[in-house]
Structure formats: C-alpha cells, structure tokens
C-alpha cells in the first residue's frame, strides 16, 4: 500500500471505519460498502474509494468485504500500536489469577483478552476479560495492534506459543513459564521466574544470618 | 534455658523427640513421658531428664506434656531455621496459583503450608499443600522453623497479616499485594509488583520504537 498519496480526509475516516467494523457482532462475516455508507452517513462511492486506499482486498460483487480481513488491513495500514495492553495465553490457575488481578490499571496497563484451547473456557470470562479460542489470536492482535503477550502455560508448550505470538505481530513477551524462550533479535522477553525470586529471598536470609 | 550444660547424647535425642511429636495425630493434646519412652524405646527417667533440659514447661502429674508447647520448646531450643521453605497467607486465585506452581522445587524451595480464614478452604489442599486456619500460623511457623512468608491477600489486609507473620517468627516477606509494608529494620521484604513488571515491558517497547 502506498500511504503517501492518501488524502487527509480519507486518513481521518479510516479509524472511523475500523471502529465501526469492530462494533459489529461477531456473526457479521461480510459487509457491503452500501451498508457501511448508510451506517456512517457517508457517500457510498467515497467509502469504496477510502477502503481501496487502505486494503488491497477489495469488496466482491454481491458479497461485500470480508469483515475480519478489512479490520486487519485497516489496523495494519493505520499502524495501530497499543503498548498499554497485553493479551494472555493459557488460562490455568496462574493465568486466571493475573486476569482477576486488579493492580494493572494503577499503572495504566491492562489485559485486553485471554486465549486458550479448552472449549470449556472459550467464551467465558475472568475478571471481565473474555477468553477466546487460541485460533483467533493473530486476527485479534493485528486488529487491536496488541504488542505484549503474557505466557502462563506449562514450560512444554511455551516455545510453540511464543512462536505463534510473534507470528501474530507481538514483539514483547512476559514469560511466566520456566521455559527458556528462543526469540529473534529485537523481541523483548521478560522472564518472571517466581522460583528464582523465592530462592533469592532464601539467599538473602542466609546472608543475613552469616553476617 | 542454659544450652551449655546439656550433654551430647541428650542433644542428639532432642530432634528425635520433636520428630516423634510432629508425627502424632493433631488430636493428641497431651502425652506422658511413659508413652514417649515406650514409642522410642528409651528409658522413662532419661526422657523426663532430656525434655526438662529443653523445656521449662514440665509435664504435669497425670496430665503429661502439652504436645504443642513441647514441640515449640524443642524447636526453639534446637534453633530450627528453615530457609528453604515458605508459608503462604491468602488462598485466593493468586495464592492458589502459587500453591499449584511446580517450579519452586527446581530451585530447592517449597511452600510448606498455606493459611486462610475461610472455613471452606481450611482443611483442604491445593497442589499437595494443606490449608490451615490462620490462627495456627504462629505455632506452625515456630515448630517448623519457617522464616519466609508469602502474602497474596488484598492490599487492605496485607499490613495486619505482615505484623502477624513477624510475631510468628518470620523474618522475610514476599509481598504480592500492592500494599507498601512497614517492617522493622532487618526484616527482608521482596515486593513482587506484577503491575510494575508489565509497565516496565511497555516502557521497554516504547524505547525500542523511539530508537
């Protein structure tokens, strides 16, 4: 996409389209330019022109636009980068604890969504955070410009999920598993090794006794 | 107690008495020197003499020794200090997650017991760790020489529980609540502020974008 030739009014309307698409019920798979124009009070020809500037996946006759694809294209075009939100993978005990932890907001941070592969968890929520199918990870992260991912799975699953997160556009990983993660240069990994924290406290205690 | 005059054979037997007392069912409130001697294959007079060297709370005629008190006296006399174990207070989501986290053993650490005031939780266990009544905290910690306590309660309750922990002989606190804890000099406090960790990752991301 060539971003240099786009007009300022079009650029201002693109986030409006994206927000409208995000507000649609999940069942809405496709949408026509006519519907978008009607909903936003815009001219249909203008809508087509705007969308074609941001997305090479044009609307198909009688089918309209693929909603998910259009959301992805718009988010990518707009270069959405949300450094204050994170998604979490692995809604076990620790994952659930983090979702219901209400200290994050104090620091202006929040967990936007959680992902799991357990059908009993998908569709439910903890602490107000919805749990999605892991297969929706990439589409969710790209649409919302999420960059931070939290891994709270077992160490055995961690690397594969880390790879999946990077493929989904994430570039900072908060790793609660005890696995060592291999990542390309430039990716931020913060290891939250609770066992090491406890061992450090133990060590500090022993030092104090031996003073 | 004067520890200098105690004979070496007595000193070697004291941990044997303590281990035997710990093995008794919780219902055993009192025990006679006769029973201890019989169980351990020792001479009754010797048992009385040994125990009086370590505990000023002597056995009462027909009543015997108070088991809890004797365990406390023996543990204190022996100067038991366990720097590899911790107890946890507050079995909510985060507390439960830590109890079932099996990474601690890798670092030679473990959580020995958990405490709560919820009758529905007391008497149950998570991850093989028994949950006790918070009122048993001091007796448990002193008997087992526990020095490290983990707080996973709400910030509102944290300071009062921290004070209770210090009164129970603990001298290192791993604080998962967002409360700032006031402690006397010499007490080790390690604040595990998860919100700050997430904010630091966010900050590192922004730095990288602005490079």
Short description:
2 copies of one chain form a homodimer. Chain A is α/β, with parallel strands linked by helices.
Task: Provide an overview of this structure.
The structure is a homodimer of 211-residue chains. Chain A is α/β, with parallel strands linked by helices. Helices cover 44% and strands 19% of the residues of chain A. In chain A, strand 3 (82-89), helix 5 (93-100) and strand 4 (110-116) form a beta-alpha-beta unit. In chain A, helix 1 (8-23) packs across helix 4, helix 2 crosses helix 3 and helix 4 packs across helix 6 (137-144). Chain A is elongated and about 80 Å long. The termini of chain A are far apart. At the A-B interface, strand 3, helix 5 and helix 8 of A face strand 3, helix 5 and helix 8 of B.
C-alpha Rg of chain A, in Å? 21 Å
The biggest chain-chain interface is: A-B, 43 and 43 residues
* Count of extended strands of chain A: 9
What share of the residues of chain A does DSSP label as strand, in percent? 15-25%
Instruction: Compute the number of helices of chain A.
Output: 8
The multimeric state of the shown protein is: homodimer
Largest sheet of chain A: 7 strands, mixed
């Amino acid at each position: 996409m060539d971003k240099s030739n786009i007009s300022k009014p079009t650029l201002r309307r693109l986030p409006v389209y994206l927000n409208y698409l995000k507000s649609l019920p999940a069942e809405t798979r496709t949408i026509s330019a006519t519907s978008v124009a009607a909903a936003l009070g815009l001219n249909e020809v203008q809508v087509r022109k705007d969308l074609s500037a941001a997305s090479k996946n044009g609307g198909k006759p009688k089918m309209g636009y693929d909603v998910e694809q259009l959301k992805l294209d718009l988010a990518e075009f707009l270069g959405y980068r949300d450094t204050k939100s994170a998604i979490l993978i692995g809604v076990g005990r620790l994952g659930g604890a983090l979702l219901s932890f209400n200290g994050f907001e104090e620091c202006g941070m929040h967990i936007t969504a959680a992902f799991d592969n357990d059908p009993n968890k998908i569709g439910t929520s903890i602490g107000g955070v919805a749990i999605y199918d892991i297969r929706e990870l990439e589409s969710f992260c790209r649409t919302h410009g999420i960059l931070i991912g939290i891994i709270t799975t077992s160490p055995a699953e961690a690397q594969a999920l880390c790879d999946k997160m990077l493929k989904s556009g994430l570039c900072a990983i908060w790793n609660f598993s005890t696995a060592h993660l291999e990542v390309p240069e430039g990716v931020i990994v913060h290891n939250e090794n609770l066992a090491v924290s406890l061992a450090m406290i133990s060590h500090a205690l022993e030092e104090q006794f031996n003073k």
